[in-house]
Specification:
Blueprint lengths: L5 H27 L2 H14 L3 H26 L3 H8 L3 H32 L3 H15 L5 H26 L4 H9 L6 H12 L3 H11 L8 H30 L10 H39 L6 H5 L1 H19 L5 H23 L3 H4 L6 H30 L1
Helix pairs in contact: 1-7, 1-10, 1-11, 1-12, 2-9, 2-11, 2-12, 2-15, 3-8, 3-9, 3-10, 3-11, 3-15, 3-17, 4-5, 4-15, 5-6, 5-12, 5-14, 5-15, 6-12, 6-14, 7-11, 7-12, 9-15, 9-17, 10-12, 11-12, 12-14, 15-17
Length: about 400
């Protein structure tokens, strides 16, 4: 009889668990670090200069509280977001799923466009051709039986590459770090729209649920998984935060020198101003990696919101994900990218967050959903803070944008 090495078996389980946790963290992080992320951060840094550091700080705090609540409630209940919503109020899960899926599709059109722009900057390919090739690359991942593992690894590799390249560019622009640190705590300018957009683009819409749903699919559920859930959610926000800060510093270094950014592609002009042609190529790599991982994350999470509604959806999940990506690419190729979608999509997603998080906070206090689990008061309070603040700021932003459109 063959002997089983318990130490090796335990070690393998730990490695597998660590891989899943990192995969979930990077799936959430790379889903949020898309073309919109690069565009939003560049535009707001140009507008607010060093004071944008304060916006980043506030948005990161809101992000952490939102993610720790959402991921924990999902894993403790063992239910996906739409299932929890339906238990809180019958039919609410279907409404939430529709908002998430259509929001994810709109985002994905922008993601595909961003991937095309990335290959254009990196290799000089036509944007449409680059978008089509990027969509095919994303589709190939889901043709494999072990698609989830490949997705995890791709997210981790892409995230690492983006951070290293962004760090190099940030150092190269020699930003006024001292002023950035001071203005992060004592800002001279403040933009509510920037806060709503950043939070919406980081943990709004489908992004809120990306990591939590990935952990469920990996079999992680119950109160015993709480420590791992905390680590994974904080890691995801940390990766996003590091990338946001590095891009902020890179842009600040360029605009502080009086460089005027290009209106049609402000992020690209930052890299080109800092490092010339090489910088433009680096921008292409970062843009493509950010976009294609967001294409994968948006498709995977959006479909995870409808897979529980019918057994055939779950059975053919990968093929539906492939169709989702293909439709996103076809819409972009035939219609084009909507004007300002990369900035406004984050703000619109920010409006979904209060609804989704508010629903989950109600659910976590229902025994029929979470059993005897007691949610920490500090998480409930901070969660309510996010719901109220994002609901209020989101409403103010929506009214402001409608008034601007009517002028």
């Amino acid at each position: 009889m063959e002997k089983v090495d318990l130490h090796t078996q335990s070690s393998t389980k730990k490695k597998a668990g660590a891989s899943v946790l990192l995969g979930a963290a990077f799936l959430m992080a790379t889903s949020s670090i898309g073309p919109g992320f690069l565009t939003q951060t560049t535009i707001f840094t140009d507008q607010l200069r060093a004071s944008f550091g304060f916006v980043i700080l506030i948005s990161l705090l809101l992000d952490v509280f939102a993610q720790m609540n959402v991921w924990r409630i999902i894993v403790v209940s063992g239910l996906r977001g739409q299932e929890i919503a339906n238990k809180v109020l019958p039919g609410l899960g279907f409404v939430l799923a529709i908002l998430i899926v259509f929001g994810g599709l709109a985002f994905n059109i922008g993601n595909v466009a961003g991937a095309g722009l990335g290959l254009n900057a990196m290799l000089g390919l036509d944007v449409t051709t680059g978008a089509a090739l990027s969509a095919i690359f994303a589709i190939v991942i889901f043709l494999f039986k072990e698609a989830s593992k490949i997705m995890d690894r791709a997210a981790q590799v892409a995230g690492g590459i983006m951070i290293l390249l962004m760090m190099y560019v940030a150092i190269s622009t020699a930003p006024p770090v001292g002023e950035a640190v001071i203005r992060t705590f004592v800002p001279t300018e403040l933009s509510i729209f920037a806060i709503v957009t950043l939070v919406g683009g980081t943990v709004g819409g489908y992004i809120t649920f990306a990591g939590g749903h990935r952990l469920l699919d990996a079999g992680l559920k119950g109160t015993s998984a709480i420590p791992e859930v905390n680590k994974s959610s904080i890691t995801g926000i940390a990766v996003t935060g590091v990338m946001r800060v590095l891009l902020f510093l890179a842009v600040l270094g360029v605009v502080s020198q009086g460089v005027k950014l290009a209106a049609d592609n402000p992020a690209a002009s930052v890299f080109e101003s800092a490092l010339g042609t090489a910088g433009f190529r680096i921008f292409g790599v970062i843009m493509w990696a950010a976009a294609v991982t967001s294409v994968v994350g948006a498709a995977y999470t959006s479909v995870s919101f409808i897979k529980t509604f019918h057994k055939n959806i779950a059975k053919y999940e990968n093929w539906i994900i492939i169709a989702f990506i293909a439709i996103s690419a076809l819409v972009f190729i035939s219609v084009g990218k909507p004007v300002n979608v990369l900035v406004l999509a984050g703000a619109l997603n920010g409006l979904i967050l209060p609804i989704a998080l508010g629903t989950l906070l109600i659910a976590v206090h229902k025994k029929s959903i979470v059993g005897n689990y007691k949610h920490p008061k500090w998480l409930t309070i901070t969660g309510i803070l996010v719901v109220v603040s994002m609901g209020t700021l989101g409403y103010m932003t929506l009214v402001e944008q409608i008034q601007l459109l009517m002028k």
